[in-house]
What we know:
Layout: E1 7-12, E2 15-16, E3 21-26, E4 29-34, E5 41-49, E6 53-63, H1 91-109, E7 115-116, E8 131-138, E9 144-149, E10 156-158, H2 167-182, E11 197-204, E12 211-217, H3 225-229, H4 231-234, E13 238-245, E14 259-263, E15 267-271, E16 274-278, H5 288-302, E17 309-313, H6 319-324, E18 330-335, H7 338-350, E19 357-360, H8 363-367, E20 379-382, H9 391-399, E21 404-409, H10 412-424, E22 427-428, E23 431-435, E24 445-452, H11 461-468
Parallel strand pairs: 4-6, 7-23, 12-13, 17-18, 17-20, 18-19, 20-21
Antiparallel strand pairs: 1-5, 2-3, 3-4, 5-6, 8-9, 8-11, 9-10, 11-12, 13-14, 15-16, 21-24, 22-24, 23-24
Helix pairs in contact: 1-10
Bound molecules: S-adenosyl-L-homocysteine (SAH).
S-adenosyl-L-homocysteine (SAH) binds next to helix 6, strand 18 and helix 8.
Amino acid sequence: MLxxxxxxxxxxxxxxxxxxxxxxxxEGIVVFVAGAVSGDVCDIQIIKTNxxxxxxxxxxxxxxxxxxxxxxxxxxxxxxxGGCIYDAITYEExxxxxxxxxxxxxxxxxxxxxxxxxxxxxHQTAAYRNKAQYPVSxxxxxxxxxxxxxxRSHRVVPAIGCHLQPPIFSDIAAWVCHTATQCxxxxxxxxxxxxxxxxxxxxxxADGSDISLTLxxxxxxxxxxxxxxxxxxxxxxxTCFGYSVNQTRSNVIMGKSFHLLRGKPYITDVLCGNHxxxxxxxxxxxxxxxAQALYEKAAELLSDVPYHRLLDLYCGxxxxxxxxxxxxxxxxxxxxxxxxxxxxxxxxVRNGFSNATYVCADAATLAKQxxxxxxxxxxxxxDPPRSGLDPATIDAIAAHAPKAVVYISxxxxxxxxxxxxxAAVGYHGDTIYPYDLxxxxxxxxxxxxxxxxxxxxxxHATLGLEASF
Length: 469
Ligand code: SAH
């Protein structure tokens, strides 16, 4: 048993896990060490003990690993929010680790027969995010400030100058905090459930010309709305300003509705040459350029599938279906957020798909309907949240017998689990393409194509696709 607070000298870090912790063994016990990198040799102080594992911190770095970048990513706050788990290592190493995460998830789930491609990236590791949701708190002087939550806590640590967002986000959030302080608007306090301003939520389009600002409040309407509306004069890029009421005592950030105060109820962005309206309540990929690359891959994976009817499950504002569908295809989409469905309907028409149908429904429930949109789809795209698909949904998708399923996932573990189920119902793939939509963080996105293979078809899955046409 290791002893709490004791410092163990000259420990060699052997790996980094997908939470960004360096891993080593001391006296046979696994120790997780924040900020440590494979190949480091360091003196480690044990700060938490457990039966089978411990947590330690670096007391002295004796030998630097070659994985460490010469200049660190330089978070102005020393990565107190814990978001940039790979900030100590080179980006090349980060990409290798992410590829390994996908491989590891497949092995763990027993998903066999897949090759994992190297992680694709455009190597833009800073200012790639088009969205930030900053919690607001009060400092010792009674001034409001914005930030991110410290890891595994609801304590707000400053985020001003975070490299992942465009610098203007910090400027706008700082203006809001300053003005709210002057107006004596209080910050929401999670412990007491009292206070008004909960989050400052910003989103911008690719060229920064359109920004939406949403204040999430614990009040029935925004106090001092007149003063706060001046933000649109100070920052003319804000073309959509409003608030969302969230009076629940939960971790959910957004309220159910958005109240527009100035401008229009959406921003506009261009993806793969298509124009999209995006309302603050709708999901939109945070990394524009990499989302485009991902959708181009999805289009390529569908290019030799002779489909006419394409179903986009978990479609958000319709981005993937609209970006990948061949001209003349009939598009269907399913999404649970009403605002996003409205966006999707208009986006389809705006981009030439006048015969698209979008429904607001739970994708799992809808997929189980026998008479899906009158006739079964020829190909299905799924892009579920991190929890992935439940087995009954996978069975229902297979029962529609699409020629191909393109699965986009933001969570390798649930993807791997779902691939095993898809294989059990006759859908197989051969190549997984990871895309780094979230540099410096622990997340990685993937896309894979699955095709139907009949039990007597012993050929490669892709040949199975050709044989079934
Ligand atoms: N394909 C879209 C959105 C993917 S994110 C894009 O690339 O932009 C996942 C989407 O699924 C979100 O829009 C979310 O609102 C939606 N969603 C979450 N749970 C759902 C459910 N049970 N049924 C339908 N849609 C759901």
